[in-house]
Amino acid sequence: MLYRKNIMFLTVACFAVAACSTASKLPNSRNLPSNEPSLSLNGYVLEPNADLSNADLSQGDLSRLNLEGTDLSGADLSNARMSQTNLSYTNLRNANLSGADLEEANLTGADLEGAILTGSNFTSINLNGANLSGADLTSVFTSGGTFVGANLSFSKIYGKQLVSVDMSNVDLTGSNIAGTNLCGSNLQGSNLTDAYLYGTFLPASNLSNANFSNADLSEAQLMGSNMARANFSRANLKKANLASPKSSDDYCGIFGISATSLEGSNMTDSNLVEADLRGVNLKGAILSGSNLYGAKLNGATMPDGSIGK
Known about the structure:
Order of helices and strands: HEEEE
Distance between the termini: 83 Å
Low-confidence stretches: 1-37
Largest sheet: 2 strands, antiparallel
Number of helices: 1
């Protein structure tokens, strides 16, 4: 009981006296009783709208805290635990969140420009409207996260798993997504101009109305995806697999996938050399200037409605 009173006195004193030094370290927030007036970690007060720029919070437990509007620019949050933490509208520019656990965290409208997020856990994360321009998301893992309207231009996302994520209306201009597993994801209306998607795994996904102009999708896997009205002008789809799946095929737990659709898409001047387009719906697609040398078109519905042989 005496210990609790002493902590209460120290915490209140630090707020009441302007000269109270941050050198007076408060106990880790996980050890504080629930009725304490503030939470702290490594001497930093953890509360909404706080200035925690360049703070060292590495390996700390910030789970379920409300840090809305906090300035964490340049902060070290590597390997920190932030599951279910409210980080909406925070400033995380150039912060280090490598290896952080962000499961079910809320980062709506957060600014993560230039942030390092390598190896982080994004499971069920909310990044709607967030700015991740130039961020490094190499080897992040997520399932069921949402990035609606986020800015991921010139970011690095390659080499890991982002299964069944909602990335509709996202700006992915110039991003590197090579070899990433995006199976069953929603990229409807997203901008992937000049993006690098070599070998990316994107079957059973919604890519309708997306812009892939001048993007590199060579050897990408797009079986059973909906790409209706998408823009693939000047895109490189060499050796890409767009074949319609068989009824028995299973991609990321999704069965009964519909035929691949490129209906009404713009394929002007695209490179489709040795691409697999078997059974694909190309009705109304624009193929002017496209290179179809060696492409497989068996059973495909051609732009004029005829069936390819």
